[in-house]
């Protein structure tokens, strides 16, 4: 009798183990690398399932600042810049600061992803830990639900690589200083880059000060050499900071001189 019970429980145990193995292998196969077809899918193409996951992430993570309808009126928004710039922007207005596209254009999906991944020092945390897939999903949600226009998939701005003759040199920074005066940067940022004390207004009429160029920690659009190059070329839409890509058309390498001048102001 006792032997019989043992035999039955052994049989059940083996059925249980077998089912566990079976289901875990099914689950694992669902997580396998979906293969090259998946990788080739257009990064900008919003797929319903991605947008749905993006919505979920947005509602749990971004809504407090950016608001249910993406208008920048979340419950916490008023505490960020109650009287001055920056405040969470209205995604539905289609004006974006951080782009790799020309001034006046919408950002690319990769631009939204960069902002979400890197965050904005002092005002928005980095969401790097969400993971790239989730960052893309929430970016696609913002574009389909709030921006509601097709985002550009390329830019007409030339991004000349920071190599060879365009790496830092004292001579290049000196030429950058000349451009700094010639292009009128000093009018807002001051002769020494520390600002002039003038207060300007952003697109919503909030007070905004030109960034102190000697303090990299106040830069919202990133502090790498490439980030500063991009800021100068594109400008920050919705703020008085203009884009200078027109002035550099055909001579993009000169923009690096200006970047080098800013780096020299920061002692790097
Ligand atoms: C603590 C508040 C806060 C949270 C949380 C937050 N943001 Fe932001 N976000 C801001 C502020 C403030 C700005 C405007 C910054 C500026 O203009 O410099 C902004 C700007 C942005 C921009 C636009 C930048 C541009 O180009 O003009 C995007 C895109 C963005 N946030 C996405 C997100 C996403 C996605 C999440 C959630 C994963 C999120 N944010 C969570 C505060 C927040
Ligand atoms: C009409 C005024 C104006 C002029 C001219 C101007 N800027 Fe700006 N700039 C601003 C303002 C305002 C900001 C701050 C924007 C913000 O806080 O989002 C800014 C921000 C910046 C930033 C920091 C961006 C960041 O990541 O937050 C850099 C770098 C910069 N300007 C460089 C330049 C250079 C180089 C020139 C000349 C080629 C120039 N600016 C001309 C007004 C100006």
Description:
With 268 residues, the protein is mostly helical. The protein has 2 domains: 48-147, Cytochrome Bc1 Complex, Chain D, domain 2 (Orthogonal Bundle); 164-265, Cytochrome c-like domain (Cytochrome Bc1 Complex, Chain D, domain 2). It has 11 helices and 2 strands. The chain has helices at 2-30, 36-39, 48-61, 63-66, 109-118, 132-147, 170-182, 185-189, 225-234, 245-248, 253-265, and strands at 200-201, 207-208. Strands 1-2 form a two-stranded antiparallel sheet. A hairpin with a 5-residue loop joins β1 and β2. α3 (48-61) packs across α6, α7 crosses α11 (253-265) and α9 crosses α11 (253-265). The chain is globular, with a radius of gyration of 25 Å. It binds heme C (HEC) (2 copies). One heme C (HEC) binds at residues 85, 97, 183-185, 187-189, 200, 208, 210-211, 213, 219-221, 228, 231-232, 236, 239-242, 244, 258, 262.
- Specify the biggest β-sheet: 2 strands, antiparallel
Which structural class is indicated by helix and strand composition?
A: mainly alpha
Number of domains: 2
Distance between the termini: 84 Å
Give the CATH H-level superfamily of the largest domain. Answer: Cytochrome c-like domain
What would you report as the Rg, rounded to the nearest angstrom? 25 Å
Unreliable runs: 12-40
**Helix content range of the residues, please?**
40-55%
CATH topology of the largest domain: Cytochrome Bc1 Complex, Chain D, domain 2
What is the global morphology? globular
Mean pLDDT: 88
Q: From N to C, what is the helix and strand string? A: HHHHHHHHEEHHH
CATH architecture assignment of the largest domain: Orthogonal Bundle
State the CATH class of the largest domain.
Mainly Alpha
Number of contiguous helices: 11
Bound molecule types:
heme C
Main-sheet strand order equals 1-2
Q: DSSP strand (E) fraction?
A: under 5%
Q: How many β-strand runs? A: 2
